[in-house]
Amino acid sequence: MLRQIGVASIENLFDSIPEDLRLLKRLDVPAALSEIELLKRFGDMGARNTAASRVSFLGAGAYSHYVPTVVDHLISRSEFFTAYTPYQPEISQGTLQSIFEFQTLICQLTGMEIANASMYDGSTALAEAVLMAERVTKRSKMIASSAIHPQYLEVAQTYVQHAGIELQPAPFDFVTGQTPISAFDSMDAQTAAVVVQSPNFFGCIEDLQALSEKVHANGALLIVAISEAMSLGLLRSPGSCGADIVVAEGQSFGVPVSFGGPYVGLFATRDKYSRQIPGRLVGEAYDKQGRRGFVLTLATREQHIRREKATSNICTNEGLIALAATIYLETMGRRGVQEVAHQCAQKAHYAAREIAKLEGLSLPFSAPFFNEFVVRAPVEALPLLERLANEKGIDGGIALSRFDSNRPNDFLVCVTETNTREQIDALVDGLRPLT
Amino acid sequence: MDSGISKVTTHISHNEQLIFERSQPGRAGFSLPPLDVDEIPLDEIVPREFQREDNLAGMPEVTEVDVVRHFTRMSSWNYSIDQGMYPLGSCTMKYNSRLNEKVARIAGFANLHPLAAEAESQGALQVIYELQQHLREITGLPGISLQPAAGAHGEMTGILIIRAFIDARDGKEGSAKRRIMLIPDSAHGTNPASAHLSGFTVQTIRSTNEGLTDLEHLRELCAHGDVAGLMLTNPNTLGLFERNIKEICRRVHDAGGLVYMDGANMNALVGVARPGDMGVDVIHLNLHKTFSTPHGGGGPGSGPCCCTKELEPFLPVPRIVRTRSGSDGPDVFKLDFDYPQSIGRVKAFFGNYGMMLRALAYILTHGYDGLREATEAAVLNARYITHGLTSDYEKPFAAPPMHEVVFTDKRQARKSVHTLDIAKRLIDYGFHPPTIYFPLIVSGAMLIEPTESVGRQELDQFIEAMRSIAREAVDNPELVLNAPHTTRIGRLDEAAAARKPVLRWKPAAPPRMATSDR
Amino acid sequence: MANVPENLHYSKDHEWVRVEGDTAVIGITDHAQDQLGDVVYVELPRAGDEFVANESFGSVESVKAVSEIFTPVSGKVAEANDSLTDEPEKVNKDPYGDGWMIKIKMSSSGEVDSLLTAAEYEDFTKAENE
Q1: Is this model's pTM higher than 0.90 or not?
Q2: Partner-chain contact C41 A305, CB within 8 Å
Q3: pLDDT average, residue stretch A366-387
Q4: Residues of chain B positioned with their CB less than 8 A from the CB of C37
Q5: Which residue of B19, B52, B368 is in closest CB contact with A29?
Q6: Cβ(C76)–Cβ(C102) below 8 Å
Q7: Interchain pair C40, B437: CB under 8 A
Q8: Complex ipTM value
Q9: Which of A18, A73, A83, A411 is the most buried (most CB within 10 A)?
Q10: Same domain, A140 and A256
């Protein structure tokens, strides 16, 4: 080939790189491993993650739900996972129709009118929602509940730090665990949006309906974030409560916890904001013979056309994970999602009842919850949970002191349909002697 | 199908409705064990006003085999890397190893919760640490964060770091005078969008007739003391190495700015040259391009951000660091949040971890030799295509390209055959079209990037297909103008779709003809 | 060749102006709509909004491009062609008629005189294309 193109040697392919910039040494990375060696190496490293095989009650933004076998099988079809963004619709209809179904499913679950093709995750979707609220309202103040996942708030803060947007905290109530409506009394004519998470970081369900009335009376938008999307199978949809933008972490729908990613951000809003929404959108289209197909549409919002005036800088999103969520939701279907949500709630409430019976342990918050709840111990939670893990092999929850040093004794317990009664009873038995 | 087309023949594809149109009440594709705890009335769990009232109406009800057939049929409508060359310029569509997929699915990683105790996640943290080490070596830049979820996210991170550095260096008032981000007219659209998010005003730098950054224009733009930085892709989006890169960096540095390099085209450089040696301050990589993690039909990606020692304090938190327990104890990997100058978090948890596993597996299976060989093959393949197409297509820049090459439709346009038509016709020949109408500064651009994952036989087929289309554009332009002819649908009316967008299925919609027989 | 009616005034940003008393009817030229391709969306101001000459008053979008539209004259918007929201294709089909965009109550009548005549605009687009 070199001879044919008239280049003397491989080195000459790089003649356009000035000599003083060429790397003369060999890269200091290991020599190539064979398949056997590689699998052994990763197998060994994987085995050092002892937490992965534990009975687990960890949630807080990443949830262990059952994933039907077909999900991984179908996303592993190379026609899906080795394809690019569907810029050539004639040979990308598989991806495009899947995204159209995804957008529809997200609308159905959130009760909203339109949804995009996905964002990176729940935290960045929330940040994008805040930026969108500023564009829509041309106002710059946001009031955000302090019961939102702390990492989501941190990400939103990073995104808006130079956007002239102010994020004000609205404190949650220490008795109910909810964010009271009065926490948003500082709303004024400059307020673009009010941001809440429901169920919130502590698992408590917020009163979205009441909040929405107050927010709209002020001409602001209501942004609702969700980290446990499975709650939508049971709880009234944010859309029907009056939310203007709903963002969520979609990991619960068929995606392994995988040490924090890749997950999939869900983003849904009202029809009237279709030209303000960030990210890709797929729409229905027809060819000359009247055959239905799907295309990427309303692309003029996006960075490759509008550049610095785009609604977001996002390009690559989470296509394959959105596909996993689509396959999950279609396999489980209407009744499956309801059943999983029902089992999560029943099992979590069983666990909460049993834990509350233990001497010294209490549930500090009174608000209704879905599948996560805070437990207060008479001792520091972090060492308590470490002992539980070491002695009983159970990851019993997440110490809230990792997020807030003022809550040394509190820990967050999450129960899903994958936790059996036996596991819950073992958790309760394990906690008993430790407190 | 024309006899000259060697790669494909027409084949049958199955029609498939939307899942909602297939749904039948009562069907189910799931199986769950019965509830094993004492059930209490729902109203005792959640007050009625918080309960879902619509019974999830409209969500599909189908069986497992319905789902499998649904997605299998739809999958056959996609072109994919596994079917052949996918020469999208700037996208680096290289082979996605199945071994890496297997690695990412190892239970010890897939089932590991991101908030599990550090001591019990040592293997996972080690993977992050090792990948960081290798990417440092490959870029020649010592600072790194793997948190960004995609290229544009890494860009945003890099530009926020520049902003934070200047804020710290110049103070609030001094920094306020530096709000200009210089971006070449050939750049990806994500560059200006990311700069805008970080509070910068974009000024465009012209390219020369040679397709390189105009140094004279750069000098003019740098003369006002207001430049915060420059965002440059290298090799640039025309596939050309910016041979004045050191001089460019020096000028920007002398003007008090920093240089951000868009690493989208690192597949031309790995093992051959390093951004850190060029004077670049901060760069993002695309693990889903250069390091072969699958594109997945539009993500997930991963966009690590690498930077100089001076910029390291500003990287996102947490960082993953290595300590040693005792003098000869084992390595211990830790999360470190203590970087008060950090720009903050850009994503929950640690980034797209599954992509890190695949990228590390890619690096380890290639080794130092394999990484360099991949770069060599990628450039050789692009040069081979350049050689093969120059006689039939206009090549706007004389310089030899690196890993991708831009041609235009200038000759074919005389017969009113344009880049879009050529792209669509290429589909009939069994290839995914190249990137078209990008970069924006080249009228009718076709940006072709073969990558290293394609053999000579298919390169020849591609070249022959392109030449054949050039002949058709002269002899039978209608054939090209109406392409594609072999796909299950023709060109879709994108204008009608954008005028009255239908973005979701609705049960109330009037019945419409489903995909008809061909 | 693009249609350039005689009785209108033209700007170098490819807008046309038809003077009706103290009101200026404004749209984009046939040449502009041809360059844009199929128009899919038009964003217009509301009646009562005020603009000075050469200020952007809205934007027009095709499938893969966005262009700002500039008013060649100063004044207050008397009416916007809201029918373009539902039928943006009017801009392609009838750029000088049904595809008009806004009517502006001119605050200064002299501005129109500095605009291009039909012949001048034709020369201008020809030069631009070369």
Answers
A1: yes
A2: no
A3: 97
A4: 495
A5: B368
A6: no
A7: no
A8: 0.97
A9: A83
A10: yes
Domain boundary among A270, A298, A328: A328
Q: Is the pLDDT of residue B511 over 60?
A: no
Residue A304 has what pLDDT?
86
The domains located in chain B, with CATH, are: 103-363 (3.40.640.10), 373-487 (3.90.1150.10)
Please tell me whether residues A295 and A413 are part of one structural domain.
no
C33, C35, C38, C41: best mutation site toward chain B, by most B Cβ within 10 Å?
C38
Report, as an integer, the average pLDDT of A403-426.
97
Class of domain C9-129 (CATH, top level):
mainly beta
What span, in angstroms and rounded, lies between the C-alpha atoms of B489 and A293?
Answer: 7
For residue A151, being part of any structural domain is answered with yes
Query: Which structural domain range is residue A309 located in?
Result: 69-328
Whether chain B has a CB inside 8 Å of the CB on C64: the answer is yes
Bridge pairing between strands B227-233 and B180-184: parallel
A423 closest CA partner among B36, B32, B30, B33 = B36
Q: What's the mean pLDDT when you consider all of chain B?
A: 95
Final residue before a domain boundary, out of A308, A328, A348 = A328
Tokens of A114: 């339109």
Query: How many domains in chain A?
Result: 2
The single-letter DSSP state of residue B517 is: P
Mutate to test the interface with A, among C40, C43, C62, C66 (most CBs of A within 10 A): C66
- Would the CB atoms of B495 and C64 count as touching at under 8 Å? no
Residue A47, domain member (yes or no): no
Window A:269-288, CB contacts with C under 8 Å: 275
Are B117 and A51 a contacting pair, CB within 8 Å? yes
Query: Of C23, C25, C12, which Cα lies nearest the Cα of C116?
Result: C12
Q: Answer yes or no: do A241 and A93 share one domain.
A: yes
Q: Are A82 and A58 found together in one domain?
A: no
Q: What angle do CA A337, B105, B128 make, to 5 degrees?
A: 115
Q: Residue A87 maps to which CATH number?
A: 3.40.640.10
Distance CA A40, CA A34 (A): 10
Q: Tell me: do A120 and A158 sit in the same domain.
A: yes
* Residues in C touching B499 (Cβ below 8 Å): 40-41, 88-89
Question: With contact defined as beta carbons under 8 Å apart, do B465 and B7 qualify?
Answer: yes
- A308 band by pLDDT with thresholds 50, 70 and 90: confident
Report, as an integer, the average pLDDT of A202-210. 98
Looking at the complex, report in whole angstroms how far the Cα of residue B411 sits from the nearest Cα belonging to chain A.
23
Cβ distance of A299 and C65 shorter than 8 Å: no
